[in-house]
Recover the amino acids of this structure.
């Protein structure tokens, strides 16, 4: 059994769901029926076969709606591994920190290329951090206070999954000085990120090694699966950049959230229109069961 979930950023009509179900039937997916998760906002269509055909049949059928197709088994996840920058928060911290050094445009261009998979992540990180040498340590707290904002839906997502017994891990190619307070505020069980080296109150232009990168994210996911003794299909990974791809590929459900093209093309699910509460709808969790931030 499979489930196709349609989630509208604003509203969706019963006729839209019926039309999607008809398309699935034409594609040979053997539809068994549909139900609302949240009337006018999100609905499930249950069908018996061919998830690949189902994705092709209904993707983009409703303007402004996201579509997730997945097996019915292990739908509600027991583990979430998430990226931070541009996923759990609205900014790239290194770009905003660079603004305090007057070099945001220079660093942001490298960040964009790295997130698109055009540059080696570790080398690009070293190069960008080197440009921050001599920046006063106080700029980190200023940046956190003035620039870092939680992504809409992030608190509700993490708090709801925790309340339902899931383990949540934040793994960032950014920095501990941001990931730790952000992760604590959101309610993550664990935070993993790079450590900026500081001497005499100023950034040295270096990060502690080894660097937290794409491999770290994948290893963290696989290690947590072993530690918890759970089925790989009961896991969810979400991110937006190329360094998130290995964990997105390995998770039971890999989600590209407002992602770069290379990630959107490979992830099992793309969220392009909704906020992070879409990940709760995808798990079949209705708003009446959410723990709101």
């Amino acid at each position: 059994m499979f489930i196709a979930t349609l989630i509208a950023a604003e509203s969706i009509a019963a006729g839209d769901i019926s039309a999607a179900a008809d398309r699935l039937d034409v594609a040979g997916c053997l539809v068994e029926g549909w139900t609302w998760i949240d009337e006018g906002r999100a609905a499930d269509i249950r069908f018996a076969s061919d998830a690949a055909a189902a994705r092709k049949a209904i993707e983009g059928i409703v303007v402004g709606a996201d579509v997730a197709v997945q097996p019915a088994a292990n739908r509600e996840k027991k583990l979430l591994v998430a990226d931070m920058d541009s996923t759990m928060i609205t900014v790239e911290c290194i770009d905003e920190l660079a603004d305090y050094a007057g070099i945001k445009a220079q660093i942001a261009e490298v960040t964009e290329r790295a997130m698109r998979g055009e540059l080696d992540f570790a080398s690009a990180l070293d190069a960008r951090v080197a440009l921050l040498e001599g920046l006063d340590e106080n700029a980190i707290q200023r940046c956190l206070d003035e620039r870092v904002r939680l992504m809409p839906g992030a608190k509700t997502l993490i708090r709801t999954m925790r309340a339902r017994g899931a383990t949540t891990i934040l793994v960032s190619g950014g920095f501990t000085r941001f990931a730790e307070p952000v992760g604590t505020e959101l309610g993550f069980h664990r935070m993993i990120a790079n450590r900026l080296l500081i001497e005499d109150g100023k950034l040295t232009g270096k990060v502690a090694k080894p660097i937290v990168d794409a491999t770290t994210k994948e290893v963290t996911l696989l290690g947590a699966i072993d530690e918890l003794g759970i089925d790989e299909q009961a896991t969810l990974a979400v991110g937006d950049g190329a360094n998130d791809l290995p964990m997105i590929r390995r998770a039971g459900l890999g989600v590209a959230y407002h992602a770069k093209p290379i990630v959107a093309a490979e992830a099992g699910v793309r969220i392009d229109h909704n906020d992070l509460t879409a990940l709760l709808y995808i798990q079949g969790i209705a708003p009446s069961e959410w723990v709101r931030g």
